[in-house]
Specification:
Distance between the termini: 45 Å
Strand content: under 5%
Shape: elongated
Mean pLDDT: 85
Helix content: over 70%
Structural class: mainly alpha
Order of helices and strands: HHH
Largest sheet: none
Low-confidence stretches: none
């Protein structure tokens, strides 16, 4: 597998934000499936929020972000990614609730 461009800093690009959201939803689903009975009690939205925060702190550190402006750019990218990732779980939850009603 080619790893050109596959770095934490790539999460700060438009494509990286989308990839980060997809990666996050995949990790959350994997955790929920592997965790057995505990997995059903894990909030997908909360897990996505935390995972994206960790990813973007790593991205900021890997780029050597040292100024307020640089960290603000990381923050904006994180908010975008977290909104997309959390939105997936809010939509799934809404659909699941509507089907059981």
């Amino acid at each position: 597998m080619p790893t050109d461009g596959l770095t934490p800093a790539a999460l700060l690009t438009v494509a990286g934000i989308a990839a980060g959201a997809a990666l996050t939803t995949t990790i959350v689903q994997l955790l929920k499936n592997v965790a057995g009975p505990i997995g059903s009690k894990i909030s997908g939205a909360l897990a996505a929020f935390v995972i994206t925060a960790v990813l973007y702190v790593i991205a900021g550190l890997s780029t050597g972000a040292a100024s307020v402006d640089a960290w603000f750019a990381v923050f904006v990218a994180w908010v975008t990614c977290a909104t997309a990732a959390v939105g997936v779980y809010a939509t799934v939850s809404h659909v699941a609730t509507a089907r059981t009603s």
